[in-house]
Amino acid sequence: MENDTPILYIVVPCFNEQEALPQSHERLSQLLDEMIGQERIACESKLLYVDDGSRDDTWKIVDNLAHESNRVAGVKLACNSGHQNALMAGLAAAVEHCDIAVSIDADLQDDINVIPQMVERYKDGCDIVFGVRRERKSDTWFKRTTAGMFYRMMKRLGVSTIENHADYRLMSRRAVLALLDYKERNLFIRGIVTKLGYKTDCVYYDRSARIAGESKYPLCKMMNFAIDGITSFSVKPVRLVFTVGVLFLVIALIMLIYVLCAYFMGRAVSGWPSLILSIWLVGAFVLIGLGIIGEYVGKIYTEVKNRPRYNVDTTIGLDKE
Ligand code: UDP
Ligand code: MG
């Protein structure tokens, strides 16, 4: 691309990461210095930590780091807004200062050593470079299986995601700007990014274990995330309700024939078991259908409210240039 030494911002969302952050910072800043030294990226490049309303000392650590070094910047959200929103906040802050932004989790489960490769791909003309995990041995069996099921289901439902790619990716300035144009509240960034249409590429790495601290994605958050991912991008569940409705019509017709036969044979009263069975069945499916439709109505509700995604409390290190 036209820019040989682009300004790189590495955006790191952090939620209660006081244990992991010092080590992660050490490794990230070393990498950044190295890359600047090799003139792969401009010396204005920075690490941007987004504190997603942590209740521990995360912001204190970021604040200290930003005071020590002008290669560190921070954004503090006023309250916990979730990983995806924190990431958007970070990208929105970074895009004003950088040519390219790499997003990565604070626990450094994703191999930071492929960042130079990502930058190379950018220089080759790619706007988005996905970090893709080669294998997930370090994740628990449960996480691996549920994640695998999730990706397969997404594919079936017609949502284009890159398998084994989370939110570790490089984006050019114009890709970030395009992403920020998606104003929806139910965010599933990795589903949007594939829709932007810019030239993309992948780099591969092995995922390692969490550097310190524990996962900030308990099962219920993961489930919510999966449901968001599906209902924000696919209307197939609604069509499923329709299909079930047609199926019920067919069953109802068969029932009608059955009842008529029973009537003419003088055995109408004995139809009671099938009747009571169908009442229950129909009731159940109506409720399931309503549940699915309710999910979409809920989405419409949150979209039309058009609430801000996050609220920035303080920033540091962003206005020094
Ligand atoms: N995170 C966040 N807000 C949240 C939950 C998580 O900013 O409400 C951040 C967290 O600090 C980490 C990243 O999102 O940098 C991914 O979380 P984690 O590593 O705990 O998830 P896992 O790798 O277990 O899926
Ligand atoms: Mg993690």
Q: Any overview of this molecule?
A:
The chain is α/β, with parallel strands linked by helices. The protein has helices at 21-37, 58-68, 83-94, 115-123, 141-156, 173-180, 189-193, 219-233, 236-264, 272-305; strands spanning 8-14, 46-51, 72-77, 100-103, 128-133, 165-172, 200-205, 312-316. It has an eight-stranded mixed beta sheet with strand order 7-5-6-4-1-2-3-8, sandwiched between helices. α2 links the parallel β2 and β3 (72-77). The radius of gyration is 25 Å and the shape is elongated. The two termini are 24 Å apart. The model has no long low-confidence stretch (mean pLDDT 88). Uridine-5'-diphosphate (UDP) binds at residues 13-15, 17, 52, 80, 82-83, 86, 105-107, 109, 215-217.
Summarize this structure as a short list of keywords or feature phrases:
321 residues; alpha/beta; 8-stranded mixed beta sheet; elongated; binds magnesium ion
| Helix-strand topology string | EHEHEHEHEHEHHEHHHE
Backbone CA Rg: 25 Å
> Can you list the ligands bound to this structure?
uridine-5'-diphosphate, magnesium ion
Could you describe the largest sheet, including whether it forms a barrel? 8 strands, mixed
- Provide the residue-averaged pLDDT: 88
Shape: elongated
* Low-pLDDT residue spans: none
Q: Please give the order of strands in the largest beta sheet.
A: 7-5-6-4-1-2-3-8
What fraction of the residues are assigned to beta strands by DSSP? 5-15%
Strand runs, count: 8
Helix run count: 10
